[in-house]
Amino acid sequence: MDIKDAVKALMALGHESRLEVYRLLVQKGPGGLPAGELARLTKNSPSSLSFHLKELVNAGLLDARQEGRFVFYSARYAAMTGLLSYLTENCCNGNPCIPLSSDLCADDLSCTPTPDAITMTNKVYNVLFLCTHNASRSIMAEALLNTMGHGRFKAYSAGSMPGQGVNRFALEKAKSLGYDTSTLRSKSWDEFAAPDAPQMDFIITVCDNAAGEVCPIWPGHPISAHWGFEDPAAAIGTDEQKRVVFDKIFRQISTRISLFANMPIDKLEKAAIHRELTAIGSHPVSA
């Protein structure tokens, strides 16, 4: 999301009735609601609601679909997470800066975390990033999600044909996050298909080669998606020229990681989560 899209979304939400409609649809999930039910719940007249819905659709925040005689409206979660990502881009220099629910109550004895907050902080999602050699893109994705995931994720990485070792420029980018790189190594994806391996909730390929290869049978049937990125290790030139390419790919991965980390995973069904992950993989990345 760029600044023009962010301003358009914020302007659309900057009205009491539209914000009420939008929050209601976010709560209702991917199925959404028909216009008539929205009018009843929000106490808007049909003409007024039609105007507000049009503004939210034009801002890219809602989807509209025809089902028989009714038009259903639903929140575009990729757009919502895109806006959140834009607003929090480079927050605290890439380090987690949003406190977990247990921290929110540290200085207030009367504060009780909500059930949703407890659920989100108790559930840690395991995510495996795959690339052919597990040397650059998957390594940076692992470091980024473990750093930006607000404690909700445990990220790993692996490859179908490891052995080249971790690229030194990828290590530089991981270190720039303050990430402990002592455990980073190039490893086979077979390690994560073993019976005693951590059970993955998500498998994300970050290079086109790995996406086209026959993967192992993952225990637990995790949700899978493909996010393609240019291979920065293929860059030629001086070290500084190579760093420029690694910086670009690192930013691109960071953008998609931020979208993923802000998804309301606990509120979505598996099919909806898969659609959102796929949409993130199609999210435009800056050059």
UniProtKB/TrEMBL annotation:
GO terms for biological process: response to arsenic-containing substance. It comes from the Bacteria. Residues 1-95 form the HTH arsR-type domain. PROSITE patterns: HTH_ARSR_2 (PS50987). GO terms for molecular function: DNA-binding transcription factor activity. Keywords: Arsenical resistance. This is Metalloregulator ArsR/SmtB family transcription factor. It comes from Pusillimonas minor.
